[in-house]
Amino acid sequence: MLVHAGPRRHLRDRPWICVDRSTIPADDVVKVRGVWVTRPVRAVFDEACRRGAEEGVVVGDAAWRAGKVTGPDVEAYVV
Question: Within a 10 A sphere around the Cβ of 71, how many other Cβ atoms?
Fold first, then answer.
């Protein structure tokens, strides 16, 4: 699981957690049931960057099939 902690948080990587300390723009996060999460298109982008193009396509396809992203969403995000 990827956790965006920001540059000032003190979290350690664990076998099931990868801590990302980058700063995320405010428009890339939304609150879902009281928890801040990245927008689906940002999550697809992060996975593609972290795991490579093939895994990015897998994650993007799953998000598209679930109705969470569209092709134009992803294209606009990466361009």
Answer: 9
Give 17's DSSP letter: B
Identify residue 46 by its one-letter amino acid code: D
Q: Which residue has the tokens 């396809």?
A: 61
Question: In sequence order, what are the residues at sequence separation of 6 or more whose Cβ sits closer than 8 angstroms to the Cβ of residue 42?
Answer: 24, 28, 29, 77
Each residue's pLDDT tens digit, 13-32:
677 777 777 788 999 999 99
Q: At what angle do helices 71-78 and 40-51 cross, to 10 degrees?
A: 60
pTM above 0.85, yes or no: no
Q: Find the radius of gyration of the CA atoms of the chain.
A: 13
Q: What's the pLDDT tens digit per position in 42-53? A: 999 888 888 898
